[in-house]
Structures are given as structure tokens and as C-alpha cells.
Design a protein that fits this description.
elongated, Rossmann fold, 5-stranded parallel β-sheet, 11 helices, 340 residues, 9% strand
């Protein structure tokens, strides 16, 4: 086509290219959609695999056992640590030996993370990290007596963790759990069975002493809330928990809090005072059962009685939660596994 003057009509200019910033935004949006889609697909895959594994366990075909066998995590204060005894005489060491002796078909490790002087908040504040690093099949908590003097990290002192509610809500997501395991493990798995108390690098261990002749109370009121949040965290990770009371004169209020909280949450409670009474009936005297070198603590003999009383409940919890079948289980009522 030509113009009236005979010349060719000029071509129309091409449409202007979108600004560079718009092209970059479009690509980022596509990448974001792809990332979200990949995360959703991964989460759905993990949920399906977990459901299939759970159905396999429920059918009794095979119990789930981790790479390290069956792991029991023992948390608490000097009563868990075993002060002032050698490591092999503490209750976690004796419990591991008893489990291995009674069930040689399984591999066991009972991890002792007891810390002398620890209060309930100190233990509760570290449970998340420990569970993601060690991935235990059962947690035993023996803590509370040091709340009488140690208020470090209790509700009156600790800073609120603004992300805790979000992390707890996300624990139902398998992908978040997997990422958490990688994250916490990257900080270093510092547990060493050869080290007393096997703690993590950089932690300051609390210290102190109990006043004599005093009734042991919890002035901060933190014990029950700490026990509750430990149970909630463990159950969100499909892990049972057991509480232990103290065989100490004057610890009635602490023990009552442990028993009441355990009853409200459906958590089994091992009464160490009953173990002490059983040892008395067998003819043992107090000096054989209570070691006074570092204040009143159980002796190796009393720990043996405690482990005997604890063994049946440990078996029952592992069987109820993980489908483990024992060749010769001890006779004890099992606390029912809570529904989802």
C-alpha cells in the first residue's frame, strides 16, 4: 500500500516491551507457585507414607523401631543423673540393662540427660531440641524438687517464645518435622554416653542445694504447666511419656502436683515412695536405700527396686504406642494411648 504521494506506508512500531521489573516479578511469582506446589506435593507424599506405615504397624505385621533400636530418653535432675553414684548405677543405666536382659531380641539405649539442680522449666525448654535430635520412642521425666529454690527460666523469668505456638501448630506437618530434624541435628548431636549427664556444648548447668527441714513447694507455680507442655510436645511427635515422683520426706506437694497432672493428662506415674516401701518390707534399712553424700538421693539398691517397678510400665507404653510385642512382658496395667 502506498500513500497518496506514492511512497510506502511506514510500518507500525512494535508494542513496547514490559518493564524489566514486571518480567522479574512474573518469574518470581512462577517460582513461588512452583515452590508451594512442590512443598504441598512433598507434604502429601509424606502424609500418605506415614498413614501406610501406621496401618502396617496397627495390623501387627512389624513394629516401628528406629535406626538405633528402641530409645528411651530420661530427663530430669540429680535423681535422673544418679548423683553421687557411678554412671552404671543410675536408674537409666539399670533400666537399659534390665530391658536388654529381659528382651535380648531388641536393641535398647536409655539416654541419661539428667542435670543436677535442674528445675522443670529448664528441662521443658530443651525438650523440643532433644526430641528432634534423639527421636526417642519414650520419654521419662523426673523433675520438680528443685523448683523450691531454682527459679531460672520459670514463667516469672523466661522471655516468652513468640514462635512456640506456631511451631506446635506446624508439628502436624510431616515436612516441618523433617526440616526440624535436619535443623536441630545440624547444631551437633552432642550426646556422649561416656559423659555423665551427656549434655550439649555451651550449656550452663544449674547448681544449688536444698534447705534442710523445709517442706518442698513450687513458689513459681511452674511445675504443672511445664509438665503439661512437655506432654503436649511429646504427643504431637507421637511419643509417650512417664512421670516419676520423689521418695523424699517433705516432697508431698511436689509429688501431688506430679500425680494430679499425670492423672489429668493420662500419663503414667511411677511412685518411687512405693519402691522405697517395698525395699523396707524386704528388710533393707534406710542407709542402704538413701545416699546422703550429696543430700538425700536414691542408692543403687533403691534404683534397682525403682527399675523393677518401672519396667512393666515402660513395656506397656512402648507396646501401646509403637506396636512392639514382647516375648515375656511384665504384668502391669497399661495407660491407654490417647486418640488423635
Amino acid at each position: 500500500m502506498t500513500r497518496a504521494g506514492g511512497g510506502p506506508k511506514p510500518a507500525s512500531p512494535p508494542p513496547p516491551a514490559p518493564p524489566r521489573s514486571r518480567r522479574l516479578g512474573y518469574r518470581l511469582a512462577l517460582a513461588g507457585v512452583a515452590l508451594v506446589g512442590s512443598l504441598v506435593a512433598a507434604e502429601l507424599t509424606l502424609q500418605v507414607l506415614a498413614a501406610v506405615a501406621a496401618r502396617t504397624v496397627d495390623r501387627g505385621q512389624e513394629a516401628w523401631i528406629g535406626e538405633e533400636g528402641i530409645t528411651v530418653l530420661s530427663l530430669g535432675d540429680s535423681h535422673t543423673f544418679g548423683l553421687p553414684l557411678p554412671a552404671e548405677e543410675s536408674y537409666p543405666a539399670q533400666l537399659e540393662a534390665a530391658l536388654r536382659r529381659h528382651h535380648p531380641e531388641f536393641e535398647f539405649q536409655v539416654v541419661n540427660l539428667g542435670i543436677p539442680g535442674a528445675n522443670s522449666s529448664f528441662v521443658a525448654n530443651r525438650l523440643e531440641r532433644q526430641m528432634f535430635q534423639l527421636r526417642p520412642d519414650l520419654v521419662i521425666v523426673w523433675v520438680g524438687v528443685n523448683n523450691i529454690w531454682n527459679v531460672a527460666e520459670t514463667r516469672a523469668w523466661q522471655r516468652p517464645d513468640r514462635w512456640l505456638p506456631l511451631r506446635q501448630a506446624l508439628l502436624n506437618a510431616k515436612l516441618f518435622r523433617f526440616a526440624s530434624i535436619l535443623w536441630f541435628s545440624a547444631t551437633g548431636h552432642q550426646y556422649d554416653p561416656a559423659e555423665r549427664g551427656g549434655w550439649f556444648d555451651g550449656e550452663r548447668r544449674p547448681s544449688g542445694h536444698l534447705g534442710k527441714g523445709k517442706r518442698l513447694k513450687d513458689p513459681s507455680g511452674s511445675l504443672a504447666p511445664d509438665l503439661r507442655r512437655m506432654v503436649e510436645l511429646a504427643r504431637s511427635l507421637e511419643t509417650p511419656m512417664i512421670f516419676v515422683t520423689y521418695p523424699l520426706a517433705g516432697a508431698e506437694e511436689i509429688n501431688r502436683t506430679i500425680r494430679v497432672t499425670g492423672g489429668q493428662l493420662g500419663v503414667a506415674v511411677i511412685d518411687s515412695s512405693a519402691s522405697l516401701e517395698r525395699a523396707f518390707r524386704a528388710g533393707h534399712l534406710r542407709p542402704e536405700l538413701i545416699d546422703e553424700r550429696s543430700g538425700p538421693h536414691p542408692s543403687a539398691l533403691l534404683y534397682r527396686y525403682l527399675v523393677e517397678d518401672m519396667l512393666a510400665e515402660v513395656e506397656a507404653e512402648l507396646a501401646a504406642w509403637h506396636g512392639i510385642e514382647w516375648a515375656e512382658p511384665r504384668v502391669s496395667p497399661a495407660s491407654p494411648r490417647p486418640g488423635p
